Amino acid sequence: MAKMLYQGHGSYRFVLNDGTVVYVDPFAGEGYDLAADLILSTHEHFDHTAFDKMPHAPGCTIIRAKDLHPSVDDYSESLESHGVVITSVQAYNKNHPKAECVGYLLDFDSVRFYASGDTSTTEDMESGFLADMNIDYAVFPCDGVYNMGPEEASRCAALVKARHSIPIHMIPMDDPSNPAQLFDRTRAEQFQAQGRLIVAAGEEITL
Question: What is the structure's pLDDT at 70?
Answer without folding.
Answer: 53
